[in-house]
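Obj.: predict assembly geometry.
Materials: sequence records (below).
Method: joint structure prediction, all chains together.
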Amino acid sequence: MPDLPDVPWSDLQLPSLPLPELPAPDLWGSPAHWAVLATLLAALAGLGVTGRSNRLAAWVGVGGGLVAFLATCWQLYTLTQIEGARRGVGTIGALPLGDELDVPLRLLVTWPVAIVAFTVAAVALVVQGYARWYLWYDPRYRPFAATVSLFTSAMLLLVLSDDLLLTLVGWEVMGWCSYLLIGHQSTRAAATRAASKALLVTRTADIGFVLGLVVLASGAGTTRTSDVVAHWGAAGTSPTLTVAMTLLVVGVAGKSALFPFQDWLPDAMEGPTPASALIHAATMVAAGTVVLAQLFPLLAVSGPARLLLAVLACTTMIGAAVLAFAQGDLKRLLAWSTVSQVALMLAVLAAATMGTGPDAALQHLVAHAWFKALLFLTTGWLGVLVGGTAMALMASGARRYRVLRHRFGWGLLALAGVPPFVGFFSKEAVLGTAEAGTAATDGGLVPVLVLASVGATAPLTAAYCMRAWLVLSRPTAVQGHARLYEPGPVERIDDFFDEPQVVQEAEGVERAEAAISSSARMGTSALMLMTLFGGILLLLPVWGPQVHVDLQLLVATLLLMVVSALLVRLAAGGVRTRDAAARIPAGVSLAAERGLHADLAYRAVVATPVLALARAVAWFDDQVLDSWVRGAGLGARLLGRAGDLTSPRRATPALALVLVGMLVLGAIGVVTA
Amino acid sequence: MSLELGLVSVLPVLAPVAAAVLVLLLDVAVPGRREPHLVLGAGGLVAGLLGALPGLGLGAGEARSALCLPGGWCAYRADHLVSALQVCALGAALVVLVLTWRDWAAPGPDGGPEGTGRAPVVTALLLAATAGVVAVPASGDLGSLLVSLELATLPTVALVALVRTTWAADRRARAVDGAVSLLTTSLVSFGLLALGAALWVAATGSTRFDGRAQVDHPQLIVLAAVLLVAGLAFKVSAVPFHAWTPITYAAAPLPVTAYLATVSKVAALGGLVVVVRALGPVDGATLVAVAVLAAASMTVGNLVALVQQDTVRLLAWSTIAQAGWVLLPLASLSAQAASAAGSYLVVYVTATVLAFVVLTAVVAVSPSARATSLESQRGLLRTHPLLALPLALALLTLAGLPPAVAGVVAKIVALRPVLGDDTWWLALVAAVNIALGLAVYLRWVAVLLAPTPTEAGPPPSRVPARLWALTGVLTALLVVGSVLPVGAL
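Observations (raw structure tokens):
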């Protein structure tokens, strides 16, 4: 291979252009306030005042999302006008907790944060518009829309927060909202089970998150994130910090579905597709990345926490990519791919050094948000057309409904990381960061592990993307028949509309477009555009410290991807459905679909012992402690009966009793005297 | 030596006594009438009540005195607490008079002489007993204490015995049994009182409760106090002087029972307060005897009340338990303890009177013979919600359970001196008895709330208007006491 030179990221970046000095009316509050409040108020209004009107609820939900989106756009503009591009604002004022703990409850906007917030608001807006179509006939659309608004508000709060308490609030509200969204179809047992599972698993991990935040805040004497970072950063490495960051990593692992908490996320596919798109693309699973990026200087100096994060993330990244390949349902395939991609974001945080900064993780978050939302919403669209998201139903979908073709194709290409789609740029940033980490630490364990895993995941991702694409673009039966009965060299008049294929395609476009509302369709189109051109956002000269793109590595990775895609194509060759996964033995395939039976492991390792303990405690309470109480009641009644029987019924024994009492009291008097 | 009379201050005592005399005179003047006597009696009680009311406004250290000697000692001395007790006693007596009005005013069989003894006699007895009750807490020396106590006790014996002649023979025999039981116990107790009084005189050399009299023999005075307390304990029905209570309560007519359960208790507590105040010089000491009485009373009372099947007997045993609560603060001798006991007594009297009024109303509307049995009140809330709710309120007050905040506050006030004194064993017994008390009263409340038994009895008769009025007034008192709890007097 020829020796290719490194390309600095700054060479790729767009030149810094001066923006026109637009008149910037000073609005009340800052855009950050508007973004959080608009969605929060939309949630409250959606629950409180929309009554029984779906239409009003949709206006409220979409309107709140729109205001938040405009606010985040405005926020991007204001950042260009601010020297240093850093804007901190207060919220409700500091909590009066005395001198021990300072809780200023402030928000902080910087460039990466503003871009993430923009992405979150945009995806949420698209999801609101999509849900208005997707759940229009759902009797519980109104609570759904309100929950989506609340969820968005919580994520925006977490992203913009400069206070660990606000971060925690956003984190927990998202946890509860995810429960509501996943369990939306509460009459289905599978949905309620998935919702409970998501809540239980993430909340179990949240124990670590809360404890970690408490340790950090109590050590620093403040909950303001920037002060916490400054305080612990100045103190250097200490066991307390390491413990806190390790706990935090455990919490993040739960929310981001890292091994061993990974199993809740594929099950969360029981939620309606808009909810899946929101949870998986931009919000909940990515929240851990944002939090760790905010606390990055502390993570960088806690070796064990980084190692833990790297090991968990790398295991998850590769394992989930492999599992994604074997799924029999497109939505579950996307879910496992989310698990893998989120692990990628977190892995790069572990590999990054202070020199490179955490920005690559946020760049991948943004890129992932665009293409994953696109893929989910398109899958939902196709699911409505074909009546399910199983691979067998989805087969030929992109051919029958050509309007979906580009959406699926671009989304999968971006997911695989093919240039010039958005995923390519973010993955290059990830690779560059991991490589820089390797160079900076002279081949330290963590960066090497991450680099190797990212390198291994790239062809795996390409493989499952190829598999999905082959299934989706399989020729339809009509096309197959047409090919079978290819007429010989017969002269015929070229009648365009006589071609069955053309008729079918026209029908497909007609049906697909008739099925969806214009606003939902427009949303997916916008996502499609961002999937293609989102790279521009990643190449803005506002992202942090620079990395070098190793062209050699880049070419090698791309080659690996091509090879794996070709292998998949080959494997799919002889299969009628063109599904490469059909080559996998049935037993393995089934196990993969069930997440390698992680459920059983959860049950055996956590649920059964906890339940046994609970039963033991309940038995102790019921049989041992309560028996005293019951005995006391019985004893009191027996004593009462005895007292009733022995109490005198006539005057004479009563008199005897009086005399006895007199003697006793006299004795007491004599003794005390 | 000149005596300062100050008759206006004695009006709470004088008015009932004068009314009693007038009733007897009126009977001589116009024999065979009933209503005028009752009206006159009620007037006497109201006049006494009005006379006692100004005492409620007295500040700390102030008192309305009468029959004073130049040295500053007064035979009659009513301060704020004493006035409150007097108001309480007179009010309760008035309620009892209203309760029993129809019974005492009713003509006998064939329209002849009335069945319940004779209206003038019973009215005079009631007035005399009430006058004694009112005089007890105000007495300034041993002599007036003993005399007023006997005045408060002996007429009630006659009231218990004088039942309607139309009652069945065995029922009347039981009434006599009850009266005898009350009489014998009161006589023995009087013996104890006399002994205690003698020891007191021996110890202090004076019959007056000066509070500051020189104590010649400190040991003797404690013994004297124990004997005095033992003598008074019969009246407050503390264990083991309680045996007469269930016997007499179950035998006497319901209004008389109410009288014994409420007005008589004021006399007992008044006497105890007088003794406790006189024991001022040995302030701070814990009177073990009172503590033992209190603990035994509440425990035995609650335990036995827990298994009663008859509401009157249940109330009798509940009275015994509540006597323990009244005695509880007195276990630590202090002014605060006396006022704590006083405020507990006021709450207890109000709640108990309300319970008896409702019970009378239930008996009035219920056609069944065993109307006072607990079982006959099953589902009262559905059939007579306006009777059941006040009854439940009264029971919750006695139990000390919200929403009857008055009862809760009373219990806290009663416990405070004990806790301040660090008498932990007593506080512990009291805590156990709070739980027991809840079981006792909630058992009754649960019966009220239970579904109505299905069998349809004969149609109930109407509740007399006077009972409605009494129920309303007493419920309002309890509600006001719960909304604006006053704490210690």
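Conclusions so far: DSSP finds 29 helices and four strands in chain A.
To do: check interface contacts against the pulldown list.
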